[in-house]
Write a structure and sequence with these properties.
The protein is an alpha+beta fold. Helices cover 32% and strands 33% of the residues.
Length: 227
């Protein structure tokens, strides 16, 4: 779990093992008193909880921090005949960020699947990785037929080379998207005129990892946009 630290203590409140993120960055903790793992203003609340855990009582302490969300410290006794305790230290801000990310991911999945706009995810090489139902219906091909296929193969032959070149420019050039009129070929051979927006996806270092396609029927787009 992001932002989680585990401190294993002996009966003298000294740290014998550490796992996960260290509560105080840059601190070597093994062999030191547990209080050294926390900022001075937090020790007064944590040390009584540690003492209770060593005496056999599980205790949880909340250390609020308006800027970072604070910490939750859960101290539990260790059995086995040797006095000791385990303290789980959770960064609440990291926990909240993870929850928000999960909620955003679920929202994206719902939007992707049920959007009336055709949407697809492509690899850097231009192959379909995922498509939604609206895209499959628009271009008259099943998801199984599209996924793994190179996008150019699903376009009208006269449009293929131009779109491949546009994708190459998205990888190598300054623009992060393009909008074009593209003709897709349905499984029955009929051409479907579309308004297609292709946006590149980059990692934190700026390297292009793939593309997102948004595909709308050209006639519907014209009615909607008035163009």
């Amino acid at each position: 779990m992001p932002g989680l630290s585990v401190l294993v203590l002996d009966g003298e409140q000294r740290i014998t093992a550490v796992a996960g993120a260290v509560p105080v960055e840059g601190t070597v903790l093994v062999g030191r008193p547990v209080g050294d793992a926390f900022a001075p203003d937090a020790r007064a609340a944590v040390l009584p909880a540690v003492a209770e855990a060593l005496a056999g009582t599980a205790t949880t302490v909340l250390l609020p921090d308006d800027d970072q969300g604070g910490l939750e410290v859960r101290c539990r006794p260790v059995g086995g005949g040797h006095p000791g305790a385990v303290c789980l230290v959770q960064d609440l801000a990291a926990q909240a960020d993870t929850s928000l990310l999960l909620e955003a991911t679920r929202a994206f999945e719902i939007t992707f699947r049920h959007s009336p706009i055709g949407q697809g995810l492509l690899s850097r090489s231009g192959r379909w990785l995922r498509v939604n139902g609206a895209l499959s219906e628009l271009v008259g091909r099943s998801a199984d037929d599209l996924v793994g296929a190179e996008m150019g193969e699903t376009l009208h032959p006269e449009d293929r080379d131009a779109e491949r070149e546009r994708l190459r420019r998205l990888v190598d050039g300054p623009d992060d998207h393009h909008v074009v009129r593209a003709r897709f070929l349905r499984a029955d051979g009929r051409a479907v005129h579309t308004h297609t927006r292709m946006t590149r996806i980059t990692d934190d270092g700026g390297t292009v990892r793939g593309f997102v396609a948004q595909v709308v029927d050209a006639a519907a787009w014209k009615r909607f946009s008035g163009r």
